[in-house]
Design goal:
With about 220 residues, this protein is mainly α. The chain is built from four helices and no strands. It is a single-pass type IV membrane protein.
């Protein structure tokens, strides 16, 4: 989950709890003290609305799977803020009498606090579910990164093997060229040896013929 959203969420929860306490204490005040307390509460409500707007903008900038969960949680916060505004309107009502204030203090505020506590409980459960979802997303991302690293390693190995094969191919090509040159040299030598055999054979034949002629003339005389 977004750390920015979590920061705004913590600020809102603290502010909401503080405003709830101020609403409870404001019902026990009269005159200027009550007006001052109500002014503080209204200023706090403005800050709470600003935080909700910030959380809304941050949630809408996140991926869809995270955004949907955060927007659902944000609706809970908006409902909580509306309850606080309703409490403030009741406190500042000009027609409220002491009996109404007592009833609000004893029953209405108790019910509001109970509803607010129930909403916060649901928000905490939603936060836990969101945290578990975030953990699963982080694990999936970790697995994806590990798979990507493995793929990169395999590609590097394949590249090295390709280079080795290309080097072996170049070496074999060089050996083939050497064999071809050696074959040409042997062919040339074989032709020369054949030609030399004919020359030697011719010389021997001439020598034998010369010897026969010499013997013939000697025996004839």
């Amino acid at each position: 989950m977004s750390q920015v959203f979590e920061g705004y969420e913590r600020q809102y929860c603290e502010l909401s709890a503080n405003l709830t306490k101020k609403c409870s204490s404001a019902t026990l005040l009269d005159g200027e003290q009550k007006k001052q307390k109500v002014s503080e509460i209204k200023a706090g409500l403005d800050d709470a609305e600003a935080l909700i707007r910030k959380m809304d903008l941050e949630a809408r900038s996140l991926p869809p799977n995270v955004k949907a969960t955060l927007l659902a949680k944000l609706r809970e916060y908006k409902s909580d803020l509306n309850n606080l505004k309703t409490e403030v309107k009741r406190i500042t009502s000009a027609n409220a009498n002491q009996a109404a204030r007592d009833e609000l203090l004893e029953s209405g505020m108790a019910d509001a606090n109970m509803v607010s506590a129930d909403q916060r409980q649901r928000l905490m459960m939603s936060t836990e579910r969101l945290n578990r979802s975030s953990d699963r997303i982080r694990e999936s991302r970790k697995t994806m990164l590990e798979t990507e690293d493995l793929g990169v390693s395999i590609l590097q190995d394949l590249h090295q093997q390709r280079q080795s094969l290309l080097h072996a191919h170049d070496t074999l090509h060089g050996v083939d060229d050497n064999i071809s040159r050696s074959k040409k040299i042997l062919t040339t030598m074989s032709r020369r040896m054949s030609r030399n055999k004919w020359i030697i054979g011719s010389i021997i034949a001439v020598l034998v013929l010369a010897i026969i002629l010499v013997l013939y003339f000697k025996l004839a005389h």
